[in-house]
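New to this. Comment on this protein:
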Amino acid sequence: MADVGAGPSFENQPQISADFTQIDLTGFPDKELTQKVIGAAYEVHNELGPGFLETIYQTALLRELSALGIKAVVQAPIPVYYKGSAIGQYYADLLVEGKLIVELKAVANIDTAHEAQVLHYLTATRLQLALIVNFGGSSVHVKRVVKTK
């Protein structure tokens, strides 16, 4: 039997906290809205756990946001612009309050391709802020993506 105390030391490792009062979001756009959406995502994951398709998490998150009084649209059409002209539409997994794209995943890890995808969405739609929410792990994982220019 292995000695429980012989494992790796976590003393100097960064800690993850769901207590949003401890996370510095100074200068972050729409920080109150993003905090509420992230909290709702944690609530959904705590209730459902991992293993479902994205559509299940999408429906549960929509209900959780609605209970918080936050307006969100599923598969919301957002115009895509090219050289100043609308050329088509992108359909966001969730568009929250008309200004926050929420891209849902149910994968092992968020990778750079997911981040690049969302950054392209922000550029093409002229929105500034997105969240990638991954329900695929033992805990929900959220990445904030901000388009500054």
Notes: DSSP finds three helices and five strands in the chain. Strands lie at 72-82, 85-96, 100-105, 129-134, 141-146. Confidence is low (pLDDT under 50) at residues 1-25.
